[in-house]
């Protein structure tokens, strides 16, 4: 029973990518990390911003 549940969750789930970008703060000059979870096709657009 558990194997069927796991298999159905894997086939119905969407493929997502976690992207992490390092951004420099204009006030202090320190770097912070911005994280976002998105579709793999949108990663390059998000990193270009």
Write a short abstract of this structure.
This protein has 49 residues and is of the alpha+beta class.
Description:
Strand 1 and strand 2 (31-38) form a beta hairpin. The protein has helices at 2-12, 43-48; strands at 17-24, 31-38. The chain is of the alpha+beta class. It contains 2 helices and 2 strands. It starts with a helix and ends with a helix. A two-stranded antiparallel ribbon has the order 1-2.
Helix and strand layout, with pairings?
Elements: H1 2-12, E1 17-24, E2 31-38, H2 43-48
Antiparallel strand pairs: 1-2
Binned, the helix content reads: 25-40%
**What is the C-alpha radius of gyration, as a whole number of Å?**
17 Å
Uncertain spans: 1-11
Strand runs, count: 2
Structural class: alpha+beta
Strand content: 25-35%
Tell me the distance between the termini.
46 Å
> What letter string, H or E per element, gives the SSE order?
HEEH
Oligomeric status of the shown chains?
Answer: single chain
Number of helices: 2
- Major β-sheet annotation: 2 strands, antiparallel
Salient structural properties:
49 residues, two-stranded antiparallel sheet, alpha+beta, elongated, disordered N terminus, 33% strand
